[in-house]
Structures are given as C-alpha cells and as structure tokens.
Write a structure and sequence with these properties.
The protein is an alpha+beta fold. 19% of the residues lie in helices and 40% in strands. The protein has a nine-stranded mixed beta sheet, with no helix packed on it. The longest helix is centred in the N-terminal third of the chain and has 17 residues. It starts with 15 loop residues before the first strand and ends with a strand.
Length: 1284
Amino acid sequence: MSGLLGVRLLLLWGSACLWLPSQARGALVISSPHETLQGTRGAVRSLQKRSTIEATVEVHSVKVDCTVTSRFAHTVMTSKALNKANSAQEIFFEVELPKTAFISNFSMEIEGQVYVGEVKEKEKAKKQYEKAVSSGHTAGLVKASGRKMEKFSVSVNIAAKSNVTFILTYEELLQRKLGQYEILTRVKPKQPVQEFQIVTNIYEPQGISYVDTHATFLSNDLLPLVEKTVTDKKAHISFSPTIEQQRKCPGCDETVIDGDFIIKYDVNRAKSLGDIQIVNGYFVHFFAPPNLPRVPKNVAFVIDRSGSMSGTKMHQTRQALTTILQDLHEDDHFALIPFDSSVISWQESLIKATKENVAEATVYVQKITDRGATDINGAVLRAVDMLVNDRQEKKLPERSIDMVILLTDGMPNVGVSRLPQIQENVRSAIGGNMSLFCLGFGNDVDYSFLDVMSKQNKGVARRIFEGSDATLQLEGFYEEVSSPLLTEVDLRYPDNTVELLTTNHFNQLFNGSEIVVAGRLIDNNLDNFMVEVFGQGFEEDFKVQDQARAVDWDVIYPDEEYIFGDFTERLWAYLTIQQLLDKSKIGAADEKANATAKALDMSLRYSFVTPLTSMVVTKPETEDGTDSPLIADKLTEEQRQQAERIGYQHSPAVHRVAYVPPPTYFVDGDPHFMIELPDRDDALCFNINDKPGTIFNLVRDANSGILVNGQIIGDKKIPPDGKINTYFWRFGIVHQTLGVRLEVDTQVISVFQDGKRVKLLWSDSASLKGPNVDLLVTKDRSLTVTLKDSVKFVILLHKVWKKHPYHRDYLGFYTLDSHLLSPSVHGLLGQFYHGIEYEVTDLRPGEVPEKPDATMFVKGRELNVTRGWQRDFRNDVKNAQVQGALVVSHRDALTQMVEVHSVKVDCTVTSRFAHTVMTSKALNKANSSQEIFFEVELPKTAFISNFSMEIEGQVYVGEVKEKEKAKKEYEKAVSSGHTAGLVKASGRKLEEFSVSVNIAAKSSVTFILTYEELLQRKLGQYEILTRVKPKQPVQEFQIVVDIYEPQGIAFVEASATFLTNELLSLVEETVTDSKAHISFSPTLEQQRKCPGCEDTVINGDFIIKYDVKREESLGEIQMVNGYFVHFFAPPNLPRVPKNVVFVIDRSGSMSGRKIEQTREALEAILKDLYKEDHFALILFDSSIVTWRDSLTKATEQNVFKAIAYVRKLSDRGATNINDAVLRAVDMLMKERRHHNIPERSADMIILLTDGMPNTGESHLPTIQKNVNAAIEGEDLSVLSWIWK
C-alpha cells in the first residue's frame, strides 16, 4: 500500500529533429510546441523563467489516510494545490500505489465543481483512449514504477488564482509474508507543504502482536514526530511534520520528505481454527495456526546456466544457492540440475540434506559456469522424473512435500521451444503430484509463460530483478517456501449456510504466510456456523472444527464510529476478482472465458480498476473547447515487464515531471521520420536521402516474427529547382508466427493468409476481422492493422491533386503499442523503440536570425543543428501541424562521421603484476575538424603510468607532475571554461579516464593508455577485469592477456558479461604449467547486434580469474634485476579460531532497506561461523545494547538464538560510534584476561555504520585516538563496513 504525490507545473518542450543519410546517422535539438513561427527565441526565455513559473503553483496540502480492517486496507490520498499565477496553467497530481492494489475512486474538485472517475469495461474505455490519442492528447494515467509500485498521474488546466483538490482511493488485501503484513506508502511531495499528514489506523479484532514503523527519509530530527499508539486490538500511527520541519535547510524550498513510509505488523494467533469475521452478510476466514511442525520437503533446483546467465547473474545464482543449501533441514532431500543445451544432474536421485551432502553440493555449485543454449523442457522434465522415481522407490518420506524450483533468465531455444507445448508436457508429467515454482531472472524471460506454467502446477512465479540485491531476492523467495507446515488444506463450511466461496482448497501452507477464504452468507442475519479445517501435517493429519461467531464491533471499538462496515464484502470481491484473473490464464478456453466474464462483471459492480476495466476521468473543458478524457488502467506483470524493457534505456530529462503514454514512432512526408521520446518531452525527426525505388527495413523483430519494409517513390518529374522529393508509397507487413502478410500501396490493400488473398480499396470504408489480424479502413484516409496479442500499425493515405505537375499520392506509417515488441527489435524505426540518448548544448545565433544553431551529441557523434520546421500529420491527415525542430542539413549529416578503426587491450601479468596497454585508433571522416573522445574504465586499484596521443605522426605524451603544481594548471584551465579533469569514479570497482582532442578533416588519432596494478588474491583467486564499451563495431577489436607465473598456474577461467553463445567460441584459451594465453578477437560482423546494424554486442566486462599452485610452506620468491618479491600463502594450514564482535549501527539513518539487508547479511554470516569460534553482538544508536555480556561460543544452538535476536533488529536514535567500539574492545580484553576464549585464536571487531557520530564523542580524531589507546599493545583487528 503506498502513495504520493507531485503537484507542479510542467514546462513543455517540443520536438528535436535530425536529417540523416540512408545509414540513419546524425542528430538534433528542442523547441516549445506553443511557439509561433516567429517565436523561436521564446524557448530560451521560457527556460530562463522556469523556476519562477513553477513557484506560482503552491501545494497547500498532502494527506494520506489509511484504514486497515482485518488486513483489508482502504487508502485515501488527497492533495490541494493553488495556481497563484495571473493566467491559467496545467497542474499535475502523481501518486505511487502498490501494484497489488485496485484503484476504486478518483475525483477532482475545481472551484466547487467535482469531476469523478467512472470505471468502465476496458474495451469501451479503449475507444475513448484511442480517440484522445488520435487527437494528440495524452490519455494514459498509469505506468509501472519500480518493482512493487505503479504510478497514477493526471493533469488539469486550472484558471488563475484558482485551486484544485485531487482525491484518489485504492484498496488491497494485505498479504502475510515471512510472518508480517506491510503497509507501504511512497511520498514525494517535491516541496514543503502547509499541511502534510500520514495517518494509519489498524483494526484487528484478533489482537495485534506488534507494530513496527520506519521510513527511508526519517532523520534523527523527524524520528520523534512519528506517533504510535498500540492497544490490544487497535494501532494508530501518524506523522505530521510542520512546513519548517520538512525543509532540507532553513528557508530553502527543498523537502526531506522523499521516500517510503513503512508499517509492519502481525496479529495474535491463539486458535488453531484461525480468525473468522462475520459482518453484514459476508464472512472472511484467516487461517495461519501457530506452533505447527514443518513438513519435510523434497526439492529439485533446476538452474539455467546458458550463455545468457554469464557474469553477474551466474555469480549471484551461485551465491544464493550456497546460502539456500545451508538453510536446508537435515530431514529435507534435494537435487541440483543445471541445464543449458544439455541437462546434467549432480546426482542421479535426490539425496538427504546432511551436513556432508550439503558441503559437497556447495563445492559443486561454486563450479557451475555459464555455457550453451536453453533447454527448459528437458530440464524440468528431468526434475519431475527424478522426484516421481524416488517417490515410487520409497526413497522419500511418505509425509513430505515435493517441489521443483526453476530459475531461468531467457527463452527456450533448443529442444522443445514452443511454449504451449512445454507447458502441456510439464503439466502432464507432474499430474498434480508436486509444486512447480518458477523464478524469471531479468527482463528477457517470458514471465507470462512461467506464470501460467506455475499456476498449472500448484506453484507461483516470481520475477527476479537484475540488480545488486538479486541474491537476496532469490534467498527471500526460497525463505517463503522453505518451511511447509501443511499440505492439501481444505476449509469447509456448511453448504446450506454459505455461497459464492472464494478458493477453499490450498495445496500447501508455508510458515509465515496465511490462507484467506471469504464468502457470502445465505441468511444475512446468521451470526454463527460450523467451520472445519483438514490438512496433512508432518506426523499426523491436521483436523479442527469449531463454531464461527460474529463479533460485536461496537463492543470491541466503543469509541470508534465504524465507517467501513462493508469491508468484508469488498474484501470478498477483491479476493474473488484476483482468483478469477488467475483462472482466466489456465484451463480450457471456455473456463478461461467464463472466469474473465465473471471478473469483469465484479470489477464493474465494485468499481475496481483491474486488468479488465479502466477508469475514465473526464477533464473540464479548456478555452479551446476540448474535453479530452483520461484513462487509468491496471497493469499486468507482463505489461510492467514490457515497459521496463524500454523504460530502462530512456535517458530521463531533468525537467520531466509527469507521466506520458508509450511513444509513437512514424514515417510521414518527405519521408519524414519522427520518434517521440516522452521521457524527454521531445521528439527526434530526420530525413533519408536515397534514390526513388529504394526499399528500407523499418521494423524487424526476430523474436515475434514481425517484419515491416517500405519503398520510396519520387516526383513525377524533376521540379524547376532541381530537387526531387521522395515519399513512401508502398509498405509490406509480415507476421511470420501468425502467417499473415499485407501489401499496402496508394491504390490497393492486399491481405494474404492461409493461401488466400483479400483485396480492399482505399475508396471504400471497410472492416475485416480475422483470427490473427483485424483491419479497419477509413475511406481515403487511414488503415489500422491490429495483430493478435501484438503491436498495432496505422497507415495514412495522403492524396495529392491528380493533375499536380510533380507530386504523387503517398503514405505515412505509424507504430502504436511498440512496447509489445521485444528488446531485440531493429530497423530504421525499430532501433529507436529501445530509447535513444542525446544531449543538446551551446544554443547560439545562426545565419538566419529566426533559425538558431546548436550542438548535439547522439550515438557517439557530434552534430551541428539548425532550427527548422517539420510537418506532423497525426492530428489531421489533410492539414499537417507545423512543429519547431532543429535540422541537420543533408550535406553536414553525410560528412560529420567518426569511425573507430581499432580497439586493442594488451595485458601482461608477470607474477601477479599486471601491465595493461589500451590502444584505440579513430578517423575523422568529415570534411571539417571535430572533437574525438577517448574513454577508458580502469580498476581503481591501478596506477596510470603513461598516456599518449599520436596525431598525423606527431606524438603527445602525458607528463607526471607533483599534484600541487599540476593543480595550478588545472585551475587555470577551469577558469578559462575548459574541461580539465580526466578521471572520475565509475561504479564500485572502476574509475573512468576520458580525454578529447580536435582532429582535422580526414585525419586520424591514436590513443594509448598504460596502467599497472598488483593483483590481489581474494577468496582463493586473482581477477583481471577489463571493461570494454566501443559503442560501435570496429574493424580491429582485440583483447589479449598473457599470464606468466613461475610458481605454476592452478586454473584459469575466462568469462564476459556480454558473451553470447556465438561469441563464446571466439575466446581462445591456452594454458601450460606456468603460462596462460587468453585472446578474444571477434570480426566486425561478429560484433554487430544484427546483420548490417551499427549497434555492437561488445558492452561490458571481460573477466579472467586464476590462481597459482602452492606447494611450499615458505611461499614463492622471485629475484630479478636486484629486486625480490615474496608471495606467501602456504597451503593446507588449519584455520585459527576467531573471536569476533559485530558492532552494528541501528540509528535512524539505517532505516528501511539498509537495516533489512543488514539483518539478512548478519543471519548468513552467523550461519557461517565455525563451532570453535566465539562471537558477540553489540547494537548501538544513542545507547549501546549487547546481546549477551560476554562472547558466546558459536554452537548451533547459540547461533540459532542469535539469528532470532538479529531478526528483531530495528532502527532508532542517534549514532554513538565511540562508545560502541570501546565496549567491544573492553569485552574482548576481559574475555582474554579471564581465559574464556582460546589462547591461540584471533580477536577482531567488525563495525558496520552508515553515518557520522552525532552523540557522545563526535570529534573524529578523538574517537580514533580513544580506539587506538584502548587497543594499544593488543593483537586485535578492527574492520569497518561503511554503508553508501
């Protein structure tokens, strides 16, 4: 559950256009769509006044009111804003709400007039949406926002000195996960507001066991403002900072309120039957009995290790599996089945999770590497077969649960690859006898395929998002399903008493979760009935029955005016709709249709915005008389995934504040291409120069089988000015998967399918509906092509006077719903569906006063652009809208090109010392000089030792100087307006070196950078990391690494984050006893993302890991030229026991994700302690709290208790680092004096903090002095982890 809220003025910018040669290269800038033809300088004035204009919108109040009644949350978000300007302007309202919630109401009140949203069937609302879009209006209100949320945004034009109040209501049933419910409210007001308030009231007749509140933005000053009152059955939480308390600094207009306000709670669970609420003729049954023993599980882990899992994904999977294996119980059985194009199981059958077996499995997991293709069908069937055989041979406990956990990141591309066939094979093999859980890693996976396959087989699917926390996501999902308590759970109610039950049979109940059943009573006045629950437990069947009785809410809450009396009915409706939507994806066609129809009917009846409905919001009329509706939809997980695929690649504009719908891409005019970039409030347009008759590939998507080509035609004859205009006159559209082909020209529309041809004429309106394609022809105007479950194209006909001496009829081509195409789509238009990044700078006067010039950087090129004007036919086929645009002339676009000729990396490692030379040669093919850039990312542990540039035979070499002397030259350059710094941070491990130089026309430059580093051994290996990002295919690309290790090489492993199956074979690896040679030299064509395109697959990290042999205890000593180096890491030494004190910051600044991840990490670390180790836990904020007064031996029982303590860790208070560390030192020294720890053991303190000391001793040098004095003379190490 979440929200809020940005209300601000949006300064709109118009279109940026560029003119390109046929290779589609070049670039452009920006203008306001509201400018007149003469008003080109207005854009500059608007930009200068933007902050002043924004200040004329005052957000008066932001309020979030959430009422939770028996887990059902009803949230109302309200915001009031005032237009203080002297003219009307647009005001925006933005809210982020949980993706599991349903919007149930939205209204706007403007000067006493209320405009209320109406929930309609999606198909009906879609017509209004398309009408609005075709009129050029922004109609979509909802888009995905991160992993858990979706954003609702709306704008309205408000008169001068008037105000508007926005009210949004949404509802959801809170889900219990890992033993708690979570209420998540996202607040982003963007400015301090007069009235800011979050109020949450929780009513739980079952009794509240605990409530925990925190926020990601809570500072020590704001922490006391969170008021929390908890009684037995009610909790009240509020947060109402004043306008001054919201400010980042006194008097400034920035707010600290920006992030998530989170409430977590659970209820008391005393009854085995659970909790049953009966209100107003409906009931809800919550079932999660306490103290049940876990049922042993038999789990087959099916792990994708195909080439696409290379790099970070594979590393994180190994990490997660290692932790998961450690978490198995000894009575569990497990199997490991890695797969690529082949399927290889670790053991032939499942084995018991003994410590010895888990240890062996962990070693095996660490050796799993990526390779080959993806055979999902074969891998899952192998797992099912293994479980079935072991069950038949009675190798598994009779009372245990069987499950398969599949982790994959891509689509099946070997073996059986047809998705419905795989689903049928798996469903048939499982036969309802086990659960299948599917984890889709990243954005290339077909989530819908995994979701349906899981639901067909008693499981669920979950998306694993690529990111640094992917390991934690995997571990978190496993934790949810790791402890089954009951299987085959039936909740039974008298047939003559209840009706319209939600699902009442569940395959399993997991620890920390909850089963919810709701229904309607046949007799509204009935206040009691018999309830029975049956299930299969660990040692015996579970059976309980009791009488359900209505409770008197007035007695439980005598001081409350109960205003949410229909909560059971709405909870029932919410749950029923969710389950019907699930059923609409599986089963027979008639069953799916029936479930869809019922879900739609209930969504409309209860005014829920679901995937089948839309909320239509009618805006007040503006001065020009338009009355454009706005549409709020509910996104499915598949739609969220599609949006992310293109969304992550758009570069956000700094002035962008409101949602717009997915972009439209089209060609029209001479031939005028336009690519809308809504994230930039912008558009790019460009023209192609080529001969009439040329055929261009516009869209090519190999994944979906869609191909679109277009052919251009010229004027009838050469006009007097000698310039021949070209236009598109014919398009071909093919959908290979559906077997559909269309040919459209200016005379005829032809459709081919199943060997038949249907011919339509532009001179007649017509509608044609088929199983795979729908066509709609508007006479002499437009053709709409809707492909089944895919993209929509619109083709416009432009008719020219027949007797025109030069021009001909021509066509325009528009792409809608482009987000439904795969990320691998290409073509002149298709390449932009992923987004495009560009930057426009240096706006300056041009040769013509009303046409200013600017500089644009796009796709690695720098172009000069000039303001021009382009026609946009979207709103009116007959009369084009003229838009401001910056245009690149045909000649300049052809000449302004940079070709990177070679990129070479040559690394020589001699006895761990790496010497790397990076060389790149580039050619300026333009007819004028231009800037060429050289960028390299190198390890932050490396020292640059040389840099040179060779330009036309002249070599310029870098000189190393004392920093203070060099600083004066730097400051002189900066004061002259030049960019002088060459190095900046780049991620966690690297730093970026960049330099640019102006190169004459037709000249070349060679850059050479040398850096050196001593490789550090970590976790038993050395790592050579080379980051390569050439940005385009190059004639000569080469990475060569030679390793010389006289001590002998134990192993070498090469990998890369960008290696595909095709590129994998190009990595050449030759290893002898003391030398290794690794090279990677793809050809120009092998580097391309697709044949003939200018995008390269080379983009990421090339990684080599190796270790040396270690036979002598003395280590290895090298003596060369009067110097020696000694490497000491003797093999086979027994480990020394350690005594470790974990000093953990739990101050207010650690709230949210930090404290959550700290808990997770500590739990894993504690499990990793050896039995002979000793440990202690010290938590600190403004006070210091120790778990125990002395160090404790790391026995299994003590570790288990410590983990339980860690799980309760929560944030609060200030930061007293000094006293916390001194407490740890004192504890270790006392233990050492009293001989409570082994004499031969290592003492250490591990400090984790995220901030500065702000209570107790806060002077940093004094803290350092205190700690040094306390430790002095003691053999004690202090390690610090710092949250960033």
